[in-house]
Amino acid sequence: MTTRQDCITLDQQDPLAACRDKFALPAGEIYLDGNSLGAMPRHVVARMQEVMEKEWGQGLIRSWNDAGWIDLPRRVAARVARLVGAAPNELMVGDSTSVNLYKALVAAVRLRPGRKVILSERGNFPTDLYIAQSVAEMFNLEIRYVDSTPEDVLAALDDSVAVLMLTHVNYRSGRIYPMHEITKRAHDAGALVVWDLAHSAGAVEVALNDANVDMAVGCGYKYLNGGPGAPAFVFVAERHHKEMRQPLSGWHGHARPFAFTLGYEAAGGIESMQCGTPPLLSMLALESALQVFDGIEMRVLRAKSVALTELFIRLVDEKLAPYGFGLASPRDAQVRGSQVSLTHEQGYAIVQALIARGIVGDFRMPDILRFGFTPLYVGYADVYDTVQAIAEIMHSGEWNQEKFITKKAVT
Ligand SMILES: *Cc1c(COP(=O)(O)O)cnc(C)c1O
């Protein structure tokens, strides 16, 4: 049996233990929802105070030049690029994941004229499928939905597929697709691949260029801790820059935005993926937040993430066997992201009872209890305390109360 003391010892040996102090988490709280909304790095408060008072309050319009606002998307992009194995000139920050996916999908479809299919999986995050449906309608394409295993995806590749669109780490199960192999097989079939890194960036190792990926998008407010509604990012491999055409031809993607000419002329390169004026305040917060990754290798983060999820599963096996939980995430750590999902009929109420105890996970329909382990601010004793709390909630029937059973608007 694993003891709490074993977990405290692991915390004492953890090379990332000191990172926790960089985050402004509520005292005593165990936050296991960084895969939905990352925690706030403390130093962002002072930086935003400075931004508000000096750059916006006093600098006003001058700050576009004097505070370097105009180069901000590129600066932030360089930080994100390092975390996902991209070159700085292949990644742009701005817009939301949904909007970036729209731009990338249209650009990819246009690079494969004559092909009729967008291939994706049924279990993909809904917004990804909704965006694909709109693109399919506009370009008169068909969406081919397959089941989630890599084998199902590979079996559905043929010469009618224009674009394969997949989410690298599944939001419900946390399962990781083999990015290198799937990308290669899609290329062998003549298709392009667009990967969604929403649950990957900042949590698992991603090597976009090593895997020869064509395009990718990802989220700023999950493991990158950029704050609610933080700008997202889009990656396009340099080999596609010359030919690509994205549909949202706004002035920030123009070659000379301040020439105010009549016709659109793409900036060329990744700059063309920009559209309109970015949400500066959010982007400045994201830039500041990303400093917590300075000097940290993704390899080290991933090692701790794996250790945390392995520990969680081991403790669930040891302590929760009598209570009817299932494991919805892979047991094999190699194909598991930074989350573990359990299933239980009373999942919603159990999550609410945990939140009432200051342990924040989330619930996904119909029966998934989702626990995200952000290696920057979650420790081994936190994992122990979480499983112990679930055992107590189940043993006492604490979950079985009206206030925990009634669903709120945002789960
Ligand atoms: C979180 C998430 C999104 C979020 O998209 P928004 O446009 O930021 O709302 C998109 N796709 C996946 C796979 C996600 O996990």
UniProtKB/TrEMBL annotation:
Domain of life: Bacteria
Binding site for pyridoxal 5'-phosphate: 97-98, 125-128, 167, 196, 199, 221, 251, 277
One Pfam family it belongs to: KYNU_C
Enzyme Commission numbers on file: 3.7.1.3
Known cofactor(s): pyridoxal 5'-phosphate
Pathway: Cofactor biosynthesis; NAD(+) biosynthesis; quinolinate from L-kynurenine: step 2/3; Amino-acid degradation; L-kynurenine degradation; L-alanine and anthranilate from L-kynurenine: step 1/1
Modified sites of kind N6-(pyridoxal phosphate)lysine: 222
Gene3D superfamilies tied to this protein: Aspartate Aminotransferase, domain 1, Type I PLP-dependent aspartate aminotransferase-like (Major domain)
Keywords: Hydrolase, Pyridine nucleotide biosynthesis, Pyridoxal phosphate
SUPFAM superfamilies: PLP-dependent transferases (SSF53383)
Family stated for the protein in its record: Belongs to the kynureninase family.
Subunit-structure text: Homodimer.
Function comment: Catalyzes the cleavage of L-kynurenine (L-Kyn) and L-3-hydroxykynurenine (L-3OHKyn) into anthranilic acid (AA) and 3-hydroxyanthranilic acid (3-OHAA), respectively.
Protein name: Kynureninase
Source lineage: Bacteria, Pseudomonadati, Pseudomonadota, Betaproteobacteria, Burkholderiales
